[in-house]
Amino acid sequence: MPLAKALELAQEYDLDLVEVAASARPPVCKLMDYGKFKYESAMKAREARKNQAHTVIKEMKLRPKIDPHDYDTKKGHVVRFLKQGDKVKITIMFRGREQSRPELGFRLLQRLAADVEDLGFIESSPKQDGRNMIMVLGPHKKKTEAMAEAREAQAARKAERQGVAATDEEAPSEETDAVEATATEDADVTEAAADEANAEA
User: Fold this and answer.
1) Side-chain-facing half-sphere of 196: CA atoms under 13 Å
2) pLDDT of residue 189
């Protein structure tokens, strides 16, 4: 179709003439609402970014002779990272004479892996790297699944908060009804007393 005819059609239907395949011979064009097309493309890209999951490697550093309380704290962080669908790099740092006892670090890493086996697995076995020993844990859940669960939990918490707020709003109205009922009863008693006084007079 000649270019002039295509432009005439575009004006007639109040659309835009957009070139979609410039390298083709002859070039391919399309009649469309270009503003609407750009908006829909932007919304699709935004939705894709929203559902996209970036795998993050978190790092946790431990010492071979770590205190039990500190171990529990570090383990809690590892559990949180795995629940979020992230990988965790565990590093055991050796100092001084500790370097001659790598089995201490190995046992600690094995213990940590056993403690979190419900949430993650050993992706990279413990290996010595200079003065450090490194192990990588991978989550059983995919990042997208963890994100979906987090969104559902957040929505549930929000709904629960709204339910509590609605209950708090209903409670004062019940109290008001009770006060009004008491006031009505008091008025009735007062009227009855006045009628008795008139009858005696």
Assistant:
1) 6
2) 46
